[in-house]
Q: What sequence folds into this?
């Protein structure tokens, strides 16, 4: 058994994520995992982040299957209707990847 979301692993974002989210939001997901979640709650290997519009800015809503722990993180970045509504962070034990829901089947 491996510990999910170890920051020493290689981290990636899928082509779909890179083409639909700015770098600062992708980086923010990794920061949220490392600074707000890791060591605070047990993490599964798939984490869900909903991107929500909040007064023109982005709020990331974290959740994971099998847990009733949820968290909203307000970010200082402008929201766009072009952003995906949801992304996943997936850890396969070797690498960690941020994916669109339509891409999760590939992993």
A:
């Amino acid at each position: 058994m491996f510990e999910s979301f170890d920051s020493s692993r290689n981290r990636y974002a899928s082509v779909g994520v890179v083409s639909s989210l700015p770098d600062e939001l992708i980086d923010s997901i990794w920061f949220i995992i490392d600074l707000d979640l890791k060591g605070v709650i047990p993490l599964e290997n798939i984490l869900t982040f909903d991107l929500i519009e909040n007064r023109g800015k982005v709020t990331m809503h974290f959740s994971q299957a099998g847990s009733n722990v949820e968290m909203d993180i307000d970010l200082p970045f402008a929201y766009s209707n072009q952003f995906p509504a949801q992304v996943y962070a997936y850890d396969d034990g070797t690498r960690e990847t941020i994916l669109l829901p339509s891409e999760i089947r590939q992993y």
Notes: The beta strands are 10-13, 46-54, 57-63, 71-78, 86-91, 95-99. The first helix runs from residue 15 to 20.
